[in-house]
Amino acid sequence: IVTVNCARLLKADHHATNGVVHVIDKVIATTTNSIQQIIETEESLETLRAAVAASDLTSLLESEGQYTLLAPTNKAFAKIPQETLNRILGDPEALRDMLNHHILKSAMCAEAIIAGLTMETLEGTTLDVGCSGEELTLNGKPIIANKDVLATNGVVHFVNELLIPDSAKTLFELAQESEVSKSTDLFRQAGLSSHLT
């Protein structure tokens, strides 16, 4: 699937006497803002803006290149427990890992993302793409709220859930999501939860 500024190429290589015509399905608008400028001007990304500044990723997101940012909205940040959010925001390494987990190494418009694809993030982890009806899913969840916001250095998709990689979780959080959740309960009952957090 070929896209031009996120417009899908419908028919290619119509040769004319003075050139060639490719038919696309959208009007291409002028793009002037970098990914960082989109973060700075979009009200629904206020929490993300603060997180990017704290993790020193500003220069990357305004640099030349082609990236895809899965931008968690304010609502996405509000969904996780305040204690977990404060811990991640207060830990520069965990914060950077989490944000890098939302950045893909290449520009991927929604039209070009094929279900069943595994996409590599800047952190080196992967995200699985599927579909639910006509909606794209990430790791099994239809969480893309707004897609194909074009930037001079890539594309932004707004997501309404935070994607937290294992490297940004405590042992307690990892255990709760795994086959050892009962062991976690025993640690808590024994008053040893602090060792896992």
UniProtKB/TrEMBL annotation:
It comes from Jacana jacana (Wattled jacana). It holds the Pfam family Fasciclin. GO terms for cellular component: extracellular matrix; extracellular space. This is BGH3 protein. InterPro entries: Adhesion/Biosynth-related, FAS1_dom_sf, FAS1_domain. GO terms for molecular function: cell adhesion molecule binding. Residues 1-28, 32-163 form the FAS1 domain. GO terms for biological process: cell adhesion; extracellular matrix organization. SMART domains: FAS1.
